[in-house]
Design brief:
The protein has eight helices and seven strands; from the N terminus they run βαβαααβαβββααβα. Helix content is about 45%, strand content about 15%. Strands 3-2-1-4-7 form a five-stranded parallel beta sheet, sandwiched between helices. It has a two-stranded antiparallel ribbon with strand order 5-6. By secondary structure, the chain is an alpha/beta fold. β1, α1 and β2 form a beta-alpha-beta unit.
Length: about 210
């Protein structure tokens, strides 16, 4: 079974014990499942993007900074698997022997989009977006504690809730528009879970 996980930067932190537990858990699962992990940039990316934006950097350049942050997180995650190199392109990642860990690729694509592209390229059995919330809501649950969580949602309805266009570097979305378009085109089963909930993550991987 081939599974692509877009691992949000929000749950990757060298200072958090949760991250160690997640990494060790994925390492164990990788012995039974072909795992392909795409890491986000999280706070590290946003911190550097915010500083560079104040200096007048272009959006394309800010995107490049964000990509470097995702790759830094990918290198950190790859250490769980005893690896010291990561692929920089979808093509290289698809040819590598799993477990595979990578970050972003080119400006204008979120790591969710990269994950969806990789899932399409390797014909993955499922695509999992592991973030710091436990699913998709009608509003941001961090801002509205009464936001409604969807147990399931059609990709058509989800696309109606978000923009198809890429926004500013460092912005956070439910799932970005490019990823949604690929998910709809490929029909790949996609799940959004709280990556810190190891039981939920494992249940989603194994079905």
């Amino acid at each position: 079974m081939k599974v692509v996980i877009s691992l949000g930067g929000s749950i990757i932190s060298p200072n958090e014990t949760d991250f160690i537990k997640i990494g060790e858990h994925l390492k164990k699962i990788s012995k039974e499942v072909d795992l392909y992990i795409v890491t986000g940039g999280g706070k590290t990316a946003r911190k550097y993007i915010k500083a560079a934006r104040k200096l007048g950097a272009s959006e394309k350049f800010l995107d490049r900074i964000g990509i470097e942050a995702t790759r830094l997180n990918a290198l950190l995650m790859s250490a769980f698997f005893g690896q010291e190199n990561i692929p920089f392109t979808i093509e290289d990642a698809s040819k590598a022997k799993p477990p595979v860990v990578m970050g972003g690729t080119t400006p204008g694509h979120s790591t969710d989009a990269v994950g969806a592209m990789l899932a399409r390229e390797i014909n993955a059995d499922k695509f999992i977006i592991a973030t710091d919330v436990d699913g998709i809501y009608d509003e941001d649950p961090k801002k509205n504690p009464h936001a409604k969580k969807y147990d399931s949602i059609s990709i058509k309805k989800l696309r109606s809730m978000i923009s198809d266009e890429w926004g500013k570097a460092g912005e956070s979305f439910i799932i970005d528009g490019i990823a949604c378009r690929i998910i709809e085109e490929t029909g790949i089963p996609t799940y959004v879970v709280n990556g810190k909930n190891l039981e939920s993550l494992e249940n989603t991987i194994y079905g």
